[in-house]
Amino acid sequence: MQEKTGYFAHLEGTSREVGRQQGQFAAEHPAWMPMLVLPEPLPEARLRETMRLLDDYCPGINDELLGAAEQLGVEPGRMVYYAGTDIQAGCSHCAVLPGKTADGRTYVLRNYDLSPELADMRLCDTAIHGRYRHIGFSTVLFGRTEGMNEHGLCVTFSACGQPVGNMEGMRAAKVSGLQFWAVVRTVLERCRTAAEAVAAIREMPIASNMNLIIADASGHAALLETFDGEIAVKEADGTAESYVTATNHPLFPEVARLEPRRLHHSVVRHELLNEALGGSAPVGKDELRGLVQQEYPHGLTVHNYRQWFGTLYSMLFDLNERTLDVCFGSPLQNPWYTVRIGEPFPQEQVKVRMQHRDPEPGFWQLV
User: Fold this and answer.
1) Cα 208 from Cα 139, distance rounded (Å)
2) The whole model's pTM is what?
3) 328 pLDDT tier (thresholds 50, 70, 90)
4) Which domains does the chain have, with CATH numbers?
5) What is the pLDDT of residues 44-66, one digit of tens each?
6) Residue among 349, 356, 328 nearest 112 (CA)
7) Could you give phi then psi for residue 272, rounded to 5 degrees?
8) Of 47, 49, 37, residue with least CA distance to 74
9) pLDDT at 144 exceeding the cut of 50
10) What is the 3-state secondary structure (H, E, C) of 203-217?
11) Exposed site from 149, 206, 249, 252, fewest CB < 10 Å?
């Protein structure tokens, strides 16, 4: 059994002020510094190009990074975010639209699986002047792995095939562009509806191979898949399609041709989601939370922490109420909390229990 600290954080002000708040948090937690600050600055030409890319597609984030660098007393070129954004994780997620839910609301369920050594474990309520307020988990402090904004737009991410990045074991980027964490945050801060989000993402250069589920409070959703620069979209308006699901493999034929391999555990988790949502009966909050209250292969939660594939948090977004049920770590080992955008968090820190269990044989098998 290992124990990790989870954090709740309110971030509010101008981009530069929020950056200083982020830098202050990092300074108060020195163990985070190797994840945030490089030993040497990036080459000047690469830094300029990355900053230009962020100014074009993610306005405001450069000011936030500069504020953090000032607070930490380091050159901006040493911020890890710049090194990783211009080019990891296993997840299960779904959006369920009003025609399918028992109470006529729109819900998004999300399970995030990775190593606790690679995660912030920090749920942020972020309100930057001139941007939409949103709530979601941070990664490398400044990025977001998912979230819901004040208008009821929700975006969740999972890697599509082998994650793209510069770390050993990751797939080298085939195109130049943004990492998922920049895309997710930008959409949350700039878009109000699923249609606006899809249109915005189509305009972005994206290096990540990812499955994004996008849903809004009006009951519209989309599954958007990117792979090696290609993009495919499936939209759902609650008529012919009342839900969308994704895990960690390509779901569109045009993308599957580029990456035909699928990990066994990704297929099993995707089938679990579709079986739970594919019947004729309406689905309630208890049934959705029940999907992560059971351990793989009967449910979505995984305790394979030693192989970088354990559940770090589970989330159930209510887009109409703008509320979020969240559990840090495995829901089989830790409690749930309910939070609302813009309201005080229940506490600043939580202790998160993470007990490893070996997965069943065949977990990593390619099919």
Assistant:
1) 15
2) 0.94
3) very high
4) 7-82 (no CATH), 90-353 (3.60.60.10)
5) 988 999 999 999 999 999 999 99
6) 328
7) -60, -45
8) 37
9) yes
10) CCCECCCEEEEEECC
11) 252
